[in-house]
Amino acid sequence: MSSNYNQYRAMLAITRASLKAMFKSPSAVGFSLGFPLIFILVFGFIGGGGPSVSFALVNNTDTTNPVIRNLLKNPLVQLEKEKDTTALRQDLEKGRIAATVAVDTVRSPAGFTQYIVHTRTSSASQDKFRILRSALAQVQAAAVENGMPQQYQPVIVTELPPVPARNYTMIDFILPGMLGFSLLSAAVFGTAFLFFNLRQQLVLKRFFATPISKAHIIFGECLARVLFQLLAAVVIIVVGRFGFHFTLVHGWITFFELLVVSLFGLIVCMGAGFVVSNVAKTESVIPFFANILTLPQMLLSGTFFRIDVFPDWLQKFCRILPLTQLNEALRNISFEGAHITDCWGQLGILTIWGIVIYAIAVKLFKWE
Fold first, then answer.
1. Which burial class, exposed, middle or buried, applies to 314 when counting CB atoms under 10 A from its CB (0-12, 13-18, 19+)?
2. Are 30 and 280 in contact (CB under 8 A)?
3. How far, in Å, CA of 286 to CA of 46, rounded?
4. What band does 5 get if pLDDT is binned at 50, 70 and 90?
């Protein structure tokens, strides 16, 4: 007589087999553990010290001045590198720095030293200036006793008339970042799925029976994706401009230059899609490999917030990412009024990334 079937043992066998399958699946491990850890680390860094702001010194103010020395002890404040007057004014107009600061040392009527702090900001830097003003108030409060008359205070802060600047809204920062991330995601995911399916379904192999060359097969498929994504970029910019007053400093010229930079970034990012399509063994792992390339950049490349909220060591890594360069080029052109000829630094780094990525893609590319 056969023994009774052990349901409990069977259940454990199924559980064990499923667990092994999950741990062997890159997608399961990545989406369950990897990406949540990335989000925790990124937002943990943001929340660790809060947003930092930069200020610049004018009138040859000494950095060893006790006011500046105590101000820089605040982790939310950092000193901008030395620049000429014209560059500093442009930084103020574009909201890159919180304010310019000058400190005059005088002798009070009572015979002791006073430090007169002169600050100048702009309408584009108001949010940053609030943080700097608060930090200066802490320095001032630490130097005086409560109730001391102003003429006897060691530190006196004055605000000079602000520099006029264009109005800066959140859409001016967010839209170029979302446009850049849209280009990256479409290039990586779209190209990876497209060529994987063409290879798996033997469509590429069937193309060989036609007179068309291999290069024209690739270019034809890529051209269709480029045209589609550029149309999507046009829709994003138009909706942002007419629906939310997105800034196009030079009108149609800025619009055209945004499309040119978008095209350049899209071509570079498509190389990563080729790499993924050749690395993936099955269609189910394509999202995992594609997300490895896109999600960290979404968080670390200034898509939703400035990268200066991160620690200095992480900022250095963020600045070499291709999406960071694409986002900065798009923002410089759209809001700051730069032209493509002013973005050679960002485009140069993107070119280096493109050369490296396509070299890997060519090495790995398979027709079948």
1. middle
2. no
3. 30
4. low
CB 347 within 8 A of CB 329: yes
* CATH classification (class only), 53-159: alpha beta
Tokens 């004014």: give the residue: 89
pLDDT band at 347 (very low <50, low <70, confident <90, very high): very high
**How large is the average pLDDT for residues 151-164?**
78
d(C-alpha 259, C-alpha 263), whole Å: 6
* Domain parsing of the chain, residue ranges: 53-159, 170-364
Close Cβ partners of 128 (under 8 Å, ≥ 6 residues apart): 53, 54, 95, 97, 98, 99, 121
- Whole-number Å distance between alpha carbons of 190 and 270: 8
Q: Which two tokens stand for residue 341?
A: 């000829």
Strand 99-107 and strand 77-79: pairing?
unpaired
Closest CA to 106 of 46, 141, 156: 156
84/104 Cα distance (integer angstroms): 19
Cα 36 to its chain centre, rounded Å, is 19
The reported pLDDT for the residue numbered 1 is 44
- Please name every residue paired with 119 in a beta bridge, in sequence order, or none if there are none: 101, 159
Among the listed residues 189, 192, 215, the one whose alpha carbon sits nearest the alpha carbon of residue 279 = 192
Instruction: Please give the pLDDT value at position 38.
Output: 63
Please give the pLDDT value at position 159.
Answer: 85
83 C-beta neighbours (distance < 10 Å), count: 16
pTM for this model (two decimals): 0.72
Phi, psi of 69 (to 5 degrees): -60, -45
Residue 311 confidence (pLDDT): 79
Higher pLDDT, 215 or 348: 348
Q: Give the integer Cα–Cα distance in Å for 118 and 158.
A: 5
**Residue 87 and residue 261: Cα distance in Å, rounded?**
25
